[in-house]
Amino acid sequence: MSKKLGVYVCGGCGIEDCLDLRKLTDLAASECRAPVVRTSPAFCLEDARMIREDVERQGVDGVVIAACSPRVNTEVFSFPSAVVERVNIREQVAWSHPPRHDETQSLAHDYVRMGVVRAQKATAPIPYTEANERTILVVGGGVTGITAALDAALAGFSVVVVEREPVLGGYARRLHRRIPSRPPYRDPQPVDIEASIRRLESLRNIRVHKGAEVTEISGQPGRFDVTIRSGEHLENATVGAIVVATGWKPGDTASFESYGLGRFPHVVTSVTLEEMAAKGRIVRPSDGGPVNRVAIAVCDGPGDARHLPYEGNVSCLVALKQALYIRELCPDAIVYLFYGDMQAPGQYEYFYKRVQGDPGVFFSRGEVRSVSEEADHKVVMEVHNTALGGAVQVSVDLLIVSTDMVPASLDPASSGSLNLRYLQGKDLPTTSAGFVDSNFICFPYETRRTGIYSAGAVRQATTLAACAQDGTAAALKAIQCIENSSAGAAVHPRVGDLSFPKFFMQKCTSCGRCSQECPFGALEVDAKNHPVLDANRCRRCGICMGACPVQIISFDDYSVDMLSSMIRAVDIPEDGEDRPRILALACENDAYPALDMAGIARLQYSAFVRVLPVRCLGSVNSVLIADAVSRGFDGVMLMGCKAGEDYQCHFIRGSELLATRMQNVRETLDRLALEAERVHVMEVAISDSAEIPAMLERFVQTVRQVGPNPLKGF
Amino acid sequence: MDPQESIAAVHRSILVVGGGIAGITAAVEAAEAGCDVVVVEKEAYLGGRVAQLHQYFPKLCPPYCGLEINFQRIRNNRRIRFYTMAEVETISGQPGNFDVTIRQRPRYVNDRCTACNDCVAVCPVDRPNAFNFGMDRTKAIYLPHALAFPMKYVIDDSACEPAACAKCVEVCRYDAIELQMAPKSFNLRVGAIIMATGWKPYDAAKIDNLGFGRYADVITNVMMERLAAPNGPTKGKIVRPSDGKPVKSVAFVQCAGQRDEAHLGYCSGICCLASLKQATYIRAQDPESRAVIFYIDLRTPGSYSLFSHKVQDDPHVSVVKGKVARILEDAATGELAVEAEHILSLEKIRVKVDLVVLASGMAASLDDGKPGAAIGFDKDHFLLPEETAPGIFAAGCARGPVDVATAAQDATAAALKALGAIRSRASS
Asked: What is the structure's pLDDT at A301?
């Protein structure tokens, strides 16, 4: 149904000094056939009322505001009963192009045309609100899981905890003491996990399954169907969101063979030492005799890379703590602590200093080159590059090697799989280091399976204090996901977006690309290999829409048809005028703000470029590029984020997938007998605004050299 | 209202003190979980210290990227309100019912500002640009930075002379400038409080032997971020502050004023990674350039060591286990020499470089006595939960020196603690 359009052309902030507003309003009224067209010296101030009145009294339901960037005045220009389209003629036209120039005016005209098309094509999405279960599943009953469960319960949510072992507490139960995590950072602290366990088991809104496993998870945020097996007994639960706190396990002892582990009885791991200390006796393992000289080796030297590719996060702190165990339980013993770099960040420095102050603990940097055994099972270590003076030999009664903390995610088969019934796999995707993949820095809980948040040692090797904190945070994310899912709203990064992809299934070719390429595993397939959407898994990036070779996927307010129509709305000058037209499909999260900031800095760039913001470059269907060149655009630029290991794409795989689609595009160009240089993928970070004018100019020059698109006018 | 009812009232909103990465994370995470949130930020913009960083380790990605998403989340969420140039004066009350006094400094520019920039063109005075640590200047009326949120101008009242000039007022077409704007105080009633007051760079001038403040080409790591940033004082070119010449060699001095009871007794935990990262800045700029990092322990815990290895794979980046004794400047050539003692060999080392970067640490932002007895501190001025009133939680560097990823985690956790404090109160 066609909308009643209102086009509002703002003259403020230098727009009317740059552009002929009269021509713009004429365009809106005549060519765009908008029944309501208005101008104002500043629509963002009192005159916002004019728009509101048109919406409320004149029945305007398609509002096109040609003014500043949609990145400002969001609240001012929000009219809930209308579709609002912001046309950026301030930052990306008036502030970045020469005033009173024909090409600048043409640019503004094209942007108004594109905005009008977008407003006409978009409809207000109707949210999916069918899934609103509010229980949280916590997988793993160690300190992370216990904290997550307790804090979620305190906020009023029901929780189901599943723990593999017959008792709760995880690794914390096996610890003698914990690393001090608050001032004065002096003495190892009681673990006291039992108090938390008692509290957990006393709360009525927490249900605990011990000695149990998750054998299947299907569904979506707001309604995950979970099967829990306890022995032979199977039980089903429906939950709204999931916290994964499956923790870690000690690394394979075989990898410590060079330290004599497994060969010599007096070489033990830090895990064994915890057990000895917990029993109150640190003795020679072979005969229970006293230990007088003990060495602790923090095994993170270059030769240790075979265990895990990264170094210990907590192994130094554990070594410091265990040195104090030995000093406490064997007051006459001396401890040698060999390490590479002492990883005692933050205020843990105070703990390091305190242990350094103990006269019975000798610290030395050094690399353990060899470990052998002499009479009476004494362990002889050869340590190189020490501060004690080159290479030294030390004979000890006990050698403790710091164990690896292997995240459960690195080995789900033996650590317990989530058994997700997802086409894309049973477990959460991991980074190359084996940890659950998330946007590590800014948004650490955004895993690639919506509504499933990892926390604790499965996410990074860390201390008990940090695990507890992490559990609390993941529980918050689970609560948030439940609140959003029940309203049919997206979670991060398009928070609150109510749209979701729809499929014109009659034309589906069952190719399966959409379900394979979705970074979030939102799409399953049915018996015919047709996609089946779990709406609340969807993050609304549109990557499926970009993937579909027959363009059957669209959102209510974002579709191939809409983008294609916007592209076709651009006026293409006749051949021979040397007014090339270039389409720039730009990531709205990074490239688009970078263009805005170029404008804010009043940097000038080519007026031949028409910027079309997209949710993600991954949502760009290759047919759009074909449409643009067929229509007569001389060049197409794709401005998006960095792909690869250090990806910057907020949807993880968008830029990477675009690259794979470029093969298609090249074939299309070839078929149309057009030069490959006409299409260019440009990596643009949000901080690149200063370089944008030159980047665009280079491409304009390339296109000019290639010459006008021969398809113009067809 | 019935007085008894007001006593029993439980306020369900959360106050977040500080609008840096920890504060805005806490705010959006809590708001997206259904809470009303008020953010109070002392600067004129949200984003805090991370807005001044060129890149984050270990991905070498721009902080603006995550900030933009967070600002979008704030723009689109009516549950979040914020006040800039505002600080908390006093806190009283208990969980569910805190009474907080806020003092807001005048911005002199009201919400009608459209950011058109006309005022800047006519402003006759300038000021050192605090955002760039004084390495360049702006007009007295200015936009704090390119991604400033809110995108509103501000007047520096230490530079502006309102009695003598009102040119900006005359040129402003939107009645947005109010030179008579006065400080104001107001009260907020909230159910829980998250302190995310962050950190400030330790004053490197206090470290006598390292020459900061005496030698122009000795800078701090935060200044290096601005030099490398494309929107910084040199548009991203790392040059010597003394003569503007390109930098071919840099020495990084780790633990400058840290792990040292005379300065900061603790380790800030991020500086080794920051220096490794900054070594990549200089290397990206000039293939011939060299960087040397003097350190005591290279603290790159956990998977951060992968980043450390990657940077150290560059033969032009070297790391030296040595404590820097002093920095000298050749009076004639202006050349800097770093003197250190190698920790293993005990040999004296002397390296000549164009630029010295001090890895000076993060000090807590809040001083003693602010904002009153409800908050307890440790000896380093980090917030101590045990001595802080219930219902008040800390996040990020208010609680201890942490990196951005940890601050984001901490803030997310604080959001649930605050939510729990309110909900358990409301249901009891």
From this structure: 55
| A 218-257 residues inside an 8 A Cβ radius of B | none
Measured distance CA(B15)–CA(B296) in Å, rounded: 40
On the CB side of A497, CA atoms within 13 Å amount to: 24
Least CB–CB distance from A350: residue in B265, B306, B420: B265
Q: What is the pLDDT of residue B10?
A: 78
Q: What residue has token string 């076709």?
A: A568
Return the pLDDT at A308: 61
CA distance B331 to chain A (A): 36
Interface contacts A/B by beta carbons within 8 Å: 254
Question: Which residues of A fall within a CB distance of 8 Å from B275?
Answer: none
Give the angle subtended at the CA of A695 by the CAs of A690 and A701, to the nearest 5°.
Answer: 140
Which amino acid type is present at position B161? E
Which residues lie closer than 8 Å to A680 by C-beta, 6 or more apart? A635, A636, A637, A638, A699, A702
Cis upstream peptide for B301 (omega within 30°): no
Angle at which helix A270-278 crosses helix A315-329, to 10 degrees, equals: 40
pLDDT at position A158 over 60? yes
- For residue A151, pLDDT over 50 is answered with yes
CATH fold of B3-105+183-198+365-427 reads FAD/NAD(P)-binding domain (3.50.50)
Percent of chain A with pLDDT over 90: 85
The pair of structure tokens assigned to A654 is 């968008």
- In DSSP terms, which residues pair with A159 in a beta bridge? A136, A206
- Residue of chain B minimizing CA distance to A345: B269
How many Cα atoms sit within 13 Å of A305 on the Cβ side? 6
Average pLDDT, chain B: 94
Q: Which of A75, A686, A689, A691 to mutate to test the interface with B (most CBs of B within 10 A)?
A: A686
Q: Could you say which of A44, A342, A646 has the minimum Cβ distance to residue B59?
A: A646
Q: How confident is the model at residue B2 (pLDDT cuts 50, 70, 90)?
A: very low
B210-219 average pLDDT score: 96
> What is the ipTM, given to two decimal places?
0.96
CATH 3.40.1280.10 assigned to B202-362: no
Q: Which domains does chain A have, with CATH numbers?
A: 1-124 (3.40.50), 136-249+407-486 (3.50.50.60), 252-403 (3.50.50.60), 502-547 (3.30.70.20), 557-714 (3.40.50)
Tell me how far the alpha carbon of residue B259 is from its chain's centroid: 21
The answer, yes or no, to whether residue B7 has pLDDT greater than 50, is no
Neighbours of A323 (CB within 10 A): 24
DSSP per-residue string spanning B182-219? --EEEEEEESEEEE---EEE--GGG-GGG-BTTBTTEE
Which one has a higher pLDDT value, A40 or A387? A40
Q: Which of B77, B115, B416 sits opposite A476 (nearest CB)?
A: B416
Q: Which two tokens stand for residue A580?
A: 């090339």
**Which chain A residue lies closest to B259 (C-alpha atoms)?**
A349
**DSSP for A131-159?**
-----EEEE--SHHHHHHHHHHHHTT--E
What pLDDT, on a 0 to 100 scale, did the predictor assign at position B102? 97
Number of other residues whose CB lies within 10 A of the CB of residue B386: 8
Q: CATH 3.50.50.60: which residues of chain B?
A: 3-105+183-198+365-427, 202-362
- For residue A597, give the amino acid letter: M
Instruction: Locate A602 and state its tokens.
Output: 């009043």
> Which of A431, A433, A476 is nearest residue B29 as measured by Cβ atoms?
A476
- Whether a cis peptide bond, with omega within 30° of 0, leads into B58 is yes
Decide if A473 touches B, using CB distance below 8 A. Answer: yes
